[in-house]
Design a protein that fits this description.
Layout: H1 18-31, H2 39-43, H3 49-60, H4 71-84, H5 88-93, H6 100-117, E1 127-128, E2 131-132, E3 134-135, E4 138-139, E5 150-155, E6 160-164, E7 169-172, E8 179-183, E9 188-192
Antiparallel strand pairs: 1-2, 3-4, 5-6, 6-7, 8-9
The structure holds a DNA duplex (21 and 21 nucleotides).
InterPro entries: Myb_dom (IPR017930), Myb_TF_plants (IPR015495), SANT/Myb (IPR001005)
Keywords: DNA-binding, Nucleus, Repeat, Transcription, Transcription regulation
GO molecular function: transcription cis-regulatory region binding
DNA sequence: AACCAGTGCAACCGCTTCTTT
DNA sequence: TAAAGAAGCGGTTGCACTGGT
């Protein structure tokens, strides 16, 4: 059996106070991130290391964008979700200033409903040439699989074929889903080309 | 004004993955 | 190679807030 990451009876739970935020920010600014397990004690916080990490990553880290998602961000999330499934941290990694928790919450509270209203079942696979790119949250890429290098894109009247390395071919059949993707093994940069059906 | 239901989001939990020994 | 510990991740929960009655 693994030991718990902290003694629950000795730690605060629930919402963070300003003082706690300040202590955490100050400590990380001074010593940098890392060693979350020992951080609470060193920073004088009665919190679990996990809790500190979450608080820093999601709310205190500099450069975070707060507030409403833009239309371009929404589109990007929808497309990346179709491609990657519920891999929120990967999706958030493509949205500067957004966190995985924020993207996940936004998907669950806004985008899922929006898709349903549009007649798209977010749980059902987006059919891409008979190959599901995501199904019930499962991505077409396996969990340990690095994004493939996109080699070519062929466009036809109402679909496009994305040709990846290792002979992974994807045909998009959704008329309003026009992707211009550039994928590499180290980073996935995505440029979206809006060609919505008028 | 009080109550209730719905919603959104911050935080927690437990499992998985990664790293170190 | 295996085991143990740390970090990361996604699902879920709980609570504050809001709008309707």
């Amino acid at each position: 059996m693994r030991k718990p990451c902290c003694e629950k009876k000795e730690t605060n739970r629930g919402s963070w106070s300003r003082e706690e935020d300040q202590k955490l920010s100050d400590y990380i600014k001074q010593h940098g991130e890392g060693c979350w397990r020992s951080l609470p004690k060193a920073a004088g916080l009665r919190r679990c290391g996990k809790s500190c990490r979450l608080r820093w990553i999601n709310y205190l880290r500099p450069g975070l964008k707060r507030g409403n998602f833009g239309e371009d961000e929404e589109d990007l999330i929808i497309r990346l979700h179709a491609l990657l499934g519920n891999r929120w941290s990967l999706i958030a990694g493509r949205l500067p200033g957004r966190t995985d928790n924020e993207v996940k919450n936004y998907w669950n509270s806004h985008l899922r409903k929006k898709l349903i209203q549009m007649g798209i079942d977010p749980k059902k696979p987006h059919q891409l040439g008979g190959r599901a790119i995501s199904c019930a949250g499962r991505p077409f890429l396996s969990k340990n699989e690095a994004p493939k290098q996109l080699l070519t894109i062929h466009r036809n009247d109402n679909h496009q074929v994305l040709k990846f390395e290792s002979s992974l071919h994807i045909k998009t059949c959704l008329p309003d889903l026009n992707l211009d993707l550039t994928l590499s093994s180290t980073a996935l940069s995505t440029t979206l080309v809006e060609e919505r059906a008028s």
